[in-house]
């Protein structure tokens, strides 16, 4: 229990200390007009207040990742707490803050456009395809997982297909309509449900004296699977998630002032880390250790763990509310996943989004493909999602490092986690069955070679960009032309 409580405390302290350091390094300009005003279109670009942006950002980024990921990561034991806390403070929150703020400085640009600007035009096309793939996987995972939870909650009284259809209809409306019409109005209620469920589970873990394992040298990692790289891909959204890089531009287009950035981007990632800590602790303590947890996962997946833990800790009524809070998370990320995909494609094809018809013909094919993907087994989808998710985070961290290098600022805050996750994602895809299937030792060697090559390419490009005085921020006089 002490490890769990210390982890929560460190996350809060990290926001007030390292968060301020990152903000100072980036350099906030409170006088600079944000895209919400300079590029206003009444659909995606429009100013919303800080509290609403914070809540929407939290619900955008906190899908099933900070719950399902930590639940599966709990199989690795208390070492999972280390990755959630350290990863969240020094990687995930930095990642979210930099992608959000750099997007604000570049008319609310999405990751493919930023990658093209800072990593070369060829990367724009690669990242565009990669981001669309990730968002389709996210949207699909975040349709199937809440549908399964609702189906179980209602004891099968309503067919799974009917629930899937209802969620898809909501996603369609949230994707097409202006952001303040559905998302801006529903998220406050959804947010209250989310906070009640997460806080309720966390408090009851402490009140009931749940045997949350402590971090010790002998109890750090009871699982047989290697920690590296699997842990760092299994627990993604609760520590570091590339999906967030696709979501922050939604809010960068509605942020009123740059000084709000730390609370919106860095702070909401810390909040997600707290949610991840709570569910990792619940999974570790309520099912007689890794063996019992593994059996429950094998029989019903992470959704079964959520239902069982909620009922054990909060009773029938409280447990139902907690499950509803968990259901809210993927739904409020799935809707913005499709919205982000629509915006990224529109930016890539240079199609204005003020007309509803333009939004419809871009988004409809996404829903058709996503519906087809719902027929694939969830565990397979999750493996591809995990790798695509962390690979996107790697790209975003290198974009942040390039921005700071050219600006002659401390780029190591992005480069160090970027190097680490480049190693992790490359090791995984070289070793995994869904990748090249090489032995772990060969995968380590291959990952080191690729990572060193990436570092060399980064410095070659960064030095050249700094020498040529690359304009890292879009000058305000260019807004009209860029639009």
UniProtKB/TrEMBL annotation:
Domain (CstA N-terminal): residue spans on this chain: 4-144, 166-288, 304-427
InterPro entries documented for this protein: CstA (IPR051605), CstA_N (IPR003706)
Keyword Transmembrane: yes
Pfam families according to UniProt: CstA
Record bears the keyword Cell membrane: yes
Keywords: Cell membrane, Membrane, Transmembrane, Transmembrane helix
Localization in the cell: Cell membrane
Topology relative to the membrane: Multi-pass membrane protein
TM ranges: 55-75, 81-104, 125-150, 156-177, 189-212, 224-243, 264-289, 309-332, 360-381, 387-406, 411-430, 442-459
GO cellular component: plasma membrane
GO biological process: cellular response to starvation
Family: Belongs to the peptide transporter carbon starvation (CstA) (TC 2.A.114) family.
PANTHER family, per the entry: CARBON STARVATION (PTHR30252:SF4), INNER MEMBRANE PEPTIDE TRANSPORTER (PTHR30252)
Protein name as catalogued: Carbon starvation protein A
Organism: Paenibacillus arenilitoris
Taxonomic path: Bacteria, Bacillati, Bacillota, Bacilli, Bacillales
């Amino acid at each position: 229990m002490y490890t769990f409580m210390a982890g929560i405390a460190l996350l809060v302290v990290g926001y007030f200390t390292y968060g301020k350091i990152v903000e100072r390094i980036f350099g906030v300009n409170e006088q600079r007009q944000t895209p919400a005003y300079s590029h206003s279109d009444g659909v995606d670009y429009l100013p919303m207040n800080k509290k609403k942006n914070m809540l929407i950002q939290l619900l955008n980024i906190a899908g099933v990742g900070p719950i399902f990921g930590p639940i599966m990561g709990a199989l690795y034991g208390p070492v999972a707490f280390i990755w959630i806390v350290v990863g969240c403070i020094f990687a995930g929150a930095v990642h979210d803050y930099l992608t959000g703020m750099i997007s604000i400085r570049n008319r609310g640009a999405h990751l493919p456009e930023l990658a093209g600007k800072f990593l070369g035009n060829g990367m724009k096309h690669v990242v565009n395809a990669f981001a669309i793939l990730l968002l389709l996987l996210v949207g699909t995972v975040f349709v199937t997982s809440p549908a399964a939870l609702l189906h179980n909650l209602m004891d099968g009284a309503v067919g799974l297909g009917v629930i899937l259809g209802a969620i898809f209809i909501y996603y369609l409306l949230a994707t097409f309509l202006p952001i303040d019409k559905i998302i801006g109005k529903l998220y406050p209620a959804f947010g209250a449900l989310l906070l009640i469920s997460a806080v309720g589970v966390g408090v009851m873990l402490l009140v009931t004296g749940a045997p949350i394992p402590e971090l010790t040298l002998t109890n750090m990692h009871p699982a047989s699977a290697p920690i590296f790289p699997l842990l760092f891909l299994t627990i993604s959204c609760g520590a570091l998630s590339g999906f967030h890089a696709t979501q922050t531009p939604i809010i960068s287009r509605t942020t009123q002032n740059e000084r709000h950035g730390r609370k919106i981007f860095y702070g909401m990632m810390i909040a997600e880390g707290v949610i991840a800590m709570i569910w990792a602790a619940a999974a570790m303590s309520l099912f007689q250790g890794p063996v019992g947890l593994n059996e429950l996962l094998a029989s019903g997946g992470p959704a079964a763990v959520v239902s069982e833990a909620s009922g054990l800790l909060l009773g029938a009524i409280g447990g139902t509310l907690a499950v509803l809070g968990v259901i809210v998370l993927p739904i409020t990320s799935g809707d913005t996943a499709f919205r982000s995909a629509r915006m990224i494609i529109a930016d890539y094809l240079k199609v204005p989004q003020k007309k509803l018809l333009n939004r419809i013909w871009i988004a409809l094919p996404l829903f058709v493909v996503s519906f087809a993907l719902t027929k694939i087994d969830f565990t397979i989808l999750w493996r591809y999602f995990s790798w695509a998710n962390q690979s996107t985070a790697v790209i975003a961290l290198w974009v942040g490092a390039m921005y700071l290098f050219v600006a002659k600022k401390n780029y190591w805050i992005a480069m160090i986690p970027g190097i680490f996750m480049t190693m992790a994602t490359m090791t995984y895809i070289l070793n995994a069955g869904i990748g090249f299937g090489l032995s772990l030792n060969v995968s380590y060697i291959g990952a080191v070679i690729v990572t060193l090559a990436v570092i060399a390419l980064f410095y070659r490009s960064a030095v050249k960009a700094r020498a040529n005085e690359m304009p890292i921020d879009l000058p305000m006089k260019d807004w009209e032309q860029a639009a």
